[in-house]
Amino acid sequence: MPEPLAIAVAQPPCVPYDVAVNAVTQAAAIRAAGARVVVFSELSLTGYHLDAPAITVEDPRLAPLVEACADTGALALVGAPVGDETGREYIAMLAVDGSGTTVAYRKMWLSPTEAERFAPGEGPVVCEVDGWRLGLAICKDTNTPRHAADTAALGIDAYVAGTVTTSKDAARQTERARAIAVEHRVWVAVASFAGSSGEGYDDTAGRSGIWAPDAAVAVQAGAETGAIARATLG
Questions:
Q1: Contact criterion met (CB below 8 Å) for 22 and 14
Q2: How far apart are CA 234 and CA 232, in angstroms?
Q3: What separation in angstroms does the CA of 221 have from each of 28, 176, 207, 229, 231?
Q4: What is the pLDDT of residues 34-75, one digit of tens each?
Q5: Can you give the pTM of this predicted structure?
Q6: β pairing state of 89-97 and 227-233
Q7: What one-character DSSP code corresponds to residue 220?
């Protein structure tokens, strides 16, 4: 077995569309988390605004995140819209470390509204950190049993997601996380947006959490913005 892995799920405040400000805020969360992996919500760098311009991994506004990861040794998983060389755009999870930023995963299961602009990702993805295999997911992916099954089939130790959901669906999000943990015998970490966002998400859930493979809650935040929940997997 690999050495224990410290992972945190963070729900910092978000300024709509303002990648520069949000990158600074999320860099502060990385420094505060004290974790090897820090996970943020779906579209954390822009807020859940489906018309937000796509960014690139070379965007200079991401520099505070890279600097925070270099200083702390963390890997941050942050949410943003991205494009590719064909002109297609995706809801993505970026992996940021001290050396820079890459596109780690593109959301596969889109809502009808999301699909008006974004293309689905091509397949499930595993991110390996210190010998831990982390299966990546974004929001509706977690509500699609096939996604968890196909990701688990790659051989994972944890299923890691960034989400946006309403406060009334907070309990349902927790139940989905617990169900994935039990069915696939993996850790589950969900970073859930807190505060107000676009597309009707005026009252989001927060309640980011980490669950053990037996579905026991390791740690869970409240609904407030700024919360960080941290646990050690092992």
A1: yes
A2: 6
A3: 18, 16, 5, 6, 11
A4: 999 999 999 999 999 999 999 999 999 999 999 999 999 999
A5: 0.98
A6: unpaired
A7: E
